[in-house]
Q: What sequence folds into this?
């Protein structure tokens, strides 16, 4: 029965007209299932029940596929909340972006890689950033202060940040690391900090990620600082 069901699914996929949206949605699903490194045009074609060449009518190459996947994910971010102050609107939107990344943990690596490669932002990312700038401008920010704000917020606008170190509980020990007692003797302040950290389970976004509290703390600190610079 299972084999018949798989054959029926394959026939259904073959008969469903191929479109760019269908290709991108299937690619996102495959990345969610096995990670973006395991995604290939051949595997994607197999999932869709087509030959690999059929995909190139909708995405010219792997980078275009990845850019399209980013646009699909950015489309999951909630639209701006109306009739509220700029700080609340920005905070809610950034935390929505954060929830999107928690659903698709592989996405931040792709976004960061494209940023480091100085690739042009995708249309959905441009629209999202344009909207966020509009919220700040409507909140009384000058163009110069918006420029500074965008630099300060950085990747946090899209729901992630680059951390200096990982203090998340339960993480795997580093291979060949010295015993804890030796580490504490050599680096007493780090040991003190590591033994004292506690993450708040009452996070706005939820407990799906160990560094959620730190993300929200930095976000609120940044927004409060920007508010003090307003006239």
A:
């Amino acid at each position: 029965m299972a084999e018949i069901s798989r054959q029926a699914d394959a026939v259904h996929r073959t008969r469903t007209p191929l479109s760019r949206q269908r290709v991108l949605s299937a690619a996102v699903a495959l990345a969610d299932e096995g990670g973006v490194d395991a995604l290939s045009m051949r595997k994607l074609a197999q999932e869709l029940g087509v030959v690999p060449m059929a995909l190139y009518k909708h995405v010219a190459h792997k980078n275009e596929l990845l850019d399209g996947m980013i646009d699909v994910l950015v489309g999951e971010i909630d639209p701006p909340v109306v009739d509220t102050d700029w700080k609340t609107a920005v905070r809610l939107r950034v935390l929505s972006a954060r929830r999107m990344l928690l659903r698709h943990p592989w996405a931040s690596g792709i976004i960061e890689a494209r940023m480091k490669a100085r690739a042009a932002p995708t249309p959905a990312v441009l629209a999202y950033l344009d909207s966020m700038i509009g919220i700040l401008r409507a909140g009384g920010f000058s163009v110069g202060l918006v420029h500074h704000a965008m630099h300060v917020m950085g990747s946090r606008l899209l729901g992630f940040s680059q951390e200096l170190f990982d203090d998340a509980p339960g993480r795997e020990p580093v291979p060949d690391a010295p015993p804890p007692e030796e580490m504490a003797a050599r680096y007493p302040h780090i040991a003190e900090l590591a033994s004292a950290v506690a993450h708040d389970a009452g996070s706005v976004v939820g407990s799906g990620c160990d560094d959620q509290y730190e993300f929200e703390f930095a976000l609120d600190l940044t927004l409060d600082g920007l508010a003090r610079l307003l006239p």
Summary: The longest helix spans residues 86-103. The two ends are 69 Å apart (CA to CA).
